[in-house]
Amino acid sequence: MSEYANKKTRGAFIAAVFAMQGFGILAGGIFAIILSSAFRARFDAPAYEDEDAETARYTALVAKNAKQAASDMSKVLQVDLEAEEQKVQQLAQDQSNSFGLFSKEFLRRHGIHLLGTTTTWFLLDIAFYSQNLFQKDIFSAIGWIPSAKTMNAIEEVYRIARAQTLIALCSTVPGYWFTVAFIDKMGRFAIQLMGFFFMTVFMFALAIPYNHWTHKDNRIGFVCDVLINLLLCKLWTYATTFVVPAEIFPARLRSTCHGISAASGKLGAIVGAFGFLYLAQNKDKAKADAGYPAGIGVRNSLIVLGVINFLGILFTFLVPESKGKSLEDLSGENEDDNQPGEQGSHNSRTVPV
């Protein structure tokens, strides 16, 4: 998607695609509420593949087919474009940009960037997915959701879906679309840095006085803190970890590097989902869930998440700012295009290679 957008609004364009996840989460919660409500009213006890075409940049820079690139972009932009055959041939003969993913040149140019995108996505998904798992236990601990022993499975689905839908409505959806609105004004680096910073602050605000939040009179404040934490996750950080890898790498390696970054995030999701499921168990084996060993408790698990968010701050400094820059400038594929005498060619309607 980054290759079809201009550099002024590219961040919002990519973030808007990712932000639709918020509506999916909201729709999932609403569907669960409707379905569980329907069953609860009747039962007292539980009882095609779409193939996308290649982008014009890939067709021109990797496949070296300027005519096809011009044709594809003409259909997208609904304007007549000229094929830059000479420029594509020059790029084909230039060996300085032909390095592979597992090469010293890639390591020199983009190794730090790839480390930054993979680690930040990995750390964020640990925090995000563990928080999703913690929601049930946290809301149960403060009495917002009754103990599982006091209700049947359908009732439990209904109450959990209601709580999670409230969170999606108040934090997830607004957070995503705030990023869409401001990512090209504030910049990716600033948004991500502030996101990890405030997530760290609010996570420690949850963890350190955890016993205070479990008192009945403090439940609303606790829920507000959780909502703010999730809002900051979506508001400042989650979309930027998706956007930046789609911008800063060369066209022929862009999807691969974005996929590596995303895979790193899913690895973080596994760590967050399963690792913290065990860590959050009660320190007393007798009080832990059936089949689980004793853990470090919810409070200590939240402290660990705070430390993970702090590490996210540090690794964010490895990620470059991409606001207002062309994809070629970011990836270093456009180093020779700013020489005198070539500026006039950018005024004509040609394929953006």
Automatic annotation (TrEMBL):
InterPro entries: MFS_dom, MFS_sugar_transport-like, MFS_trans_sf. Gene3D superfamilies: MFS general substrate transporter like domains. The chain crosses the membrane at residues 12-35, 189-208, 220-239, 259-280, 301-319. Its main location: membrane. GO terms for cellular component: membrane. Residues 330-339 have a biased composition (Acidic residues). It comes from the Eukaryota. Residues 340-353 have a biased composition (Polar residues). It is a multi-pass membrane protein. SUPFAM superfamilies: MFS general substrate transporter. Residues 328-353 are annotated as: Disordered. Keywords: Membrane, Transmembrane, Transmembrane helix. It is found in: Membrane. GO terms for molecular function: transmembrane transporter activity. Residues 1-324 form the Major facilitator superfamily (MFS) profile domain. This is Major facilitator superfamily (MFS) profile domain-containing protein. It comes from Hevea brasiliensis (Para rubber tree).
